[in-house]
Write a structure and sequence with these properties.
134 residues; mainly beta; Immunoglobulin-like; three-stranded antiparallel β-sheet; 1 helix; 7 strands; elongated
C-alpha cells in the first residue's frame, strides 16, 4: 500500500494561481470622481503616465465609456520585483451619468495624471400631455 502525503497549502496555492491566470485579461478598475457644476457634469479619472493616443472615450445616451491601455515597460521584464502595484495593461469603465447631457459638447483634458471629461448638462424639457376621452 502506497501512502501519499496530503499538502493542503499546495492545493490552495494552485487555486490562487488559476484565479490569477483567469483574471489577467480582465484589466483593472479606474479610480474616478463624478460631480456637477451649475452647467456641467464632470468626470475625473486618475491615469498617471497614460498615452492619451491610447484612450477611447464615448458617450452613448446617459453612459460614459472609457477604455485604453497602458504600455508595459519592456525593460522591466528582466527585473525581479518584490512589490509591483503600479497598474499596467488594459482598462475599461462605464459610468451611468446621473443627468442627461449634450454628448456632442463633451470635452476632455489630461493634466498631471488626471483625465477630466466635461459634459454640458441638457435641460429637462417640459411637455404638456393632452388627455383625450372617448
Amino acid at each position: 500500500m502506497n501512502l501519499m502525503q496530503y499538502e493542503p497549502f499546495s492545493q490552495l496555492e494552485k487555486f490562487f494561481q488559476a484565479f490569477e491566470k483567469g483574471s489577467k485579461d480582465l484589466g483593472w478598475v479606474l479610480a474616478s470622481d463624478v460631480y456637477e457644476t451649475d452647467t456641467h457634469l464632470v468626470v475625473r479619472f486618475a491615469l498617471p503616465g497614460i498615452d492619451t493616443k491610447k484612450l477611447n472615450i464615448t458617450v452613448e445616451g446617459d453612459v460614459l465609456r472609457i477604455s485604453g491601455t497602458t504600455a508595459l515597460d519592456k525593460e522591466d521584464s528582466n527585473n525581479n520585483y518584490y512589490i509591483r502595484e503600479i497598474r499596467q495593461g488594459n482598462f475599461q469603465k462605464a459610468i451611468q451619468l446621473p443627468k442627461k447631457v449634450k454628448s456632442e459638447t463633451a470635452s476632455a483634458e489630461y493634466k498631471h495624471g488626471i483625465l477630466t471629461i466635461s459634459l454640458e448638462k441638457d435641460e429637462a424639457k417640459k411637455i404638456n400631455v393632452k388627455v383625450t376621452t372617448d
